[in-house]
Amino acid sequence: MRRVLLALLIFALLITIASANECIDCHRQVTPGIVDQWLSGNMSKYFGCEACHGSDHKNSDDWQNAKMPTPDTCKACHPKQYNQYASGKHYYAWIAMNAMPALQHVPNPQRDLEGFKGCSGCHKIGHIEEKEGYRYGAAACDSCHTRHKFSKEEARKPEACLPCHMGFDHPQYEMWSTSKHGVIYRIEGDTGRAPKCQTCHMANGNHSVMTAWGFLALRVPEDDEEWWKDRVTILQALGVLDEDGNPTERFEIVKAGKVARLSKEKWQTERERMITICSQCHSENFAREQLEAGDKMIREADRVFAEAIRTVKELYDLGILEKPDDWKYAPDLLQFYEVKTPIEEELYLMFMEYRMRTFQGAFHMNPDYSFWYGWAPLKESLIKIKYEAEKLKAEKLGESEVVTTTTPAPEKTEAQETKSTPGFEGIVTALAIVSAMIFAGRRAK
């Protein structure tokens, strides 16, 4: 019996090798680079092309019969990693993208999966249902283990995270790479002395990639009463809570996409996991102090941001700003840059750029990024919004004077008034000239 099984195994292996050779012979002419990548990876030593693409594709005329892999394809050999991925935030990236109202305004090549020119280029790491009809780009796993080498070593490098975790609203790579942690990595290489992305966010190869605060740095509930008031204001501007503080349909999307922490227990679980990771190099007390300092930066940023939201909300309440017919909430932060007024564009920048950089910079140990690229412009935007709001209210009320947020200049004293008169300045100037002439004459003698 064993001989029969061994013979069948050898026969199957020979068929696989023969099939793989057929694919390689043809694709060397069509896609030679892909063939070279495939042969340079470990998978080519154990599998043929049909393991991922099936065996229905026989020649150049039936190329559409080749199956495109999905995470379920990878699951067959990597069930542990798949289950971790399916429980984490990357799995829900596609859901989160499609939940954004502003997506309907994005050009097709940027919105659709086939184009990869915008949001979908990174959010395709999420799980995509087959019924959505996308042929290419639904593999997800190849976002980090790029095809066709599918290298584990490549995915362990922080540079693998760079294409998606950079830029406008999530410059985590820039923050890390210019922090002390990142500088040590750049000087010494991957020696293990300094943490990289995978050290903190994929400890022991865990593919769930979860954090305590999530992408939006929001948690429910909040014990700090003042902070909770600010949090409610932000959640209402996101359309997650209605004006009475009740959950809306968007709350379910936030819940499904795991972009916020909706219980103390879930938040604390992720925080303790990070404490354990940081404590491999630092004392536990130091790790807690640093992470709690990041928490406080979120609180301070929320205070400024909530004040700006309330300022804009008042303009809607007064009828100065009119809610568009296709908006359900106003202001609506999830409209992003598709808002109708400059004052709301400034609010969008506070939300997606400055607030993000304030807390992300803090947690990535980059004080300069947190302060000058986050906190400082966040405060500047608040001043701009309040100033513009006063102008709009003055125009609405028909007032001729505009209320400003700047401090008025102090009144001049009597001595200053006297000194500033043209006659006084003229006398002083004349005396100075005469004195200079007398002094020059004496020197000449």
Uncertain parts: 8-18, 400-410, 412-445
* CATH structural class of the domain at 225-397: Mainly Alpha
Percentage of residues assigned to helices: 55-70%
Fourth-level CATH superfamily of the domain at 225-397: Hydroxylamine Oxidoreductase, Chain A, domain 2
CATH architecture of the domain at 225-397: Up-down Bundle
Let me know the average pLDDT: 85
- SSE topology string: HHHHHHHHHHHHHHHHHHHH
Roughly how many Å is the radius of gyration? 31 Å
Number of strands: 0
Q: What percentage of the residues does DSSP assign to strands (E)? A: under 5%
Structural class: mainly alpha
Largest sheet: none
Per CATH, what is the topology of the domain at 225-397? Hydroxylamine Oxidoreductase, Chain A, domain 2
Describe the global form.
globular
The tally of helices reads: 20
Q: What distance lies between the first and last C-alpha atoms, to the nearest angstrom?
A: 129 Å
InterPro entries: Multihaem_cyt_sf, Multiheme_Cytochr_ET
Keywords: Signal
Region (Disordered): 400-420
Pfam families: Multi-haem_cyto
